[in-house]
Design brief:
196 residues; Alpha-Beta Plaits; 4-stranded antiparallel beta sheet; rod-shaped; transmembrane; Extracell_DNA_Util/SecSys_Comp; membrane
């Protein structure tokens, strides 16, 4: 007699295929979840690393800003000290300026010129005197230009008096002393106020 299988084998095969499909689907879903999780973790690690680098740079920038501020204050102190040193050097140079001026004037005044008045205001000397000729005045201006102490000789007036002796003419001249501050007291005050 023929063997007939009456069990529902088709349903069992279909159930087996269905279970296999669900298993594959779960495996693929789990695999995709792991792939998405791995990619997400990778990019999150990249973002966290960049944020950490940004924070490091911000901290370093703050440190450099503090150092720049310190450098600015040091530069200001250095400038104030240089002003003070400059004023002290000018005071040192001008300490013996009276004797230096008289010594230099004795050297530069040629024969034929007679000084009647010498007045110093700051670093300007006003000379008043008499001259036998304009050539003597020109020689004196040349000597002033060659001088180590004086500069900028500017004749202000040359007057010949008709009633007096025609041999002598009155002159006024302005001469600048090299290396002196015009108003030394103001320079000292400014230098010492700038340092406080």
């Amino acid at each position: 007699m023929a063997y007939i299988n009456l069990l529902p084998w088709r349903e069992e095969a279909q159930q087996a295929r269905k279970k296999e499909f669900i298993s594959i689907l779960a495996f693929v879903g789990l695999f995709m979840f792991l792939v998405v999780f791995a990619i997400s973790s990778y990019y999150q690690a990249q973002v966290d690393g960049q944020l950490a680098r940004n924070q490091f740079l911000k901290n370093e920038i703050q440190i450099l800003d503090v150092r720049i501020a310190e450098i600015k204050t040091l530069n200001e102190k250095k400038d104030a000290l240089q002003k003070r040193i400059s004023v002290i050097e000018q005071l040192q140079r001008s300490r013996n300026v009276g004797t230096q001026v008289l010594d230099e004037i004795a050297k530069i005044i040629p024969n034929g010129i007679y000084l009647t008045k010498l007045e110093k205001q700051g670093n300007i000397i006003h000379l008043t005197g008499k001259s036998e000729s304009n050539n003597h005045l020109a020689n004196m201006i040349r000597e002033i230009d060659l001088s180590d102490l004086f500069t900028d000789a500017t004749p202000e007036s040359i007057i010949t008096d008709e009633e007096a002796t025609k041999l002598l003419s009155d002159f006024k001249m302005r001469v600048t002393i090299k290396g002196l501050v015009g108003d030394l007291d103001a320079a000292v005050d400014q230098a010492f106020q700038g340092g406080n």
